[in-house]
Design a protein that fits this description.
The protein has 66 residues and is an alpha+beta fold. The chain contains 2 helices and 6 strands. It has a 4-stranded antiparallel beta sheet. Strands 1-4 form a two-stranded antiparallel sheet.
Length: 66
């Protein structure tokens, strides 16, 4: 059974934290996004269920349906 994943830039768009893919890229490359407590600058970083995305002082748990 495959574990569901989503790329960080897509996650920001889906969650409404970024308006567009370009906006997500700027936020990520600007060091404004953390994954599991560490600044992440890779747009293509794959997120798995249980990961924590931090942005603008808020933490968002990654919940994906298989």
């Amino acid at each position: 059974m495959e574990v569901p994943v989503i790329k960080l830039d897509q996650y920001l768009k889906v969650m409404g934290l970024a308006q567009t893919g370009g906006h997500a890229k700027i936020l990520i490359q600007g060091g404004e996004v953390k994954v599991n407590g560490t600044v992440e600058t890779r747009r293509g970083r794959k997120l798995h269920p249980g990961d924590q995305v931090e942005f603008a002082g808020e933490t968002h748990p990654v919940e994906l349906e298989s």
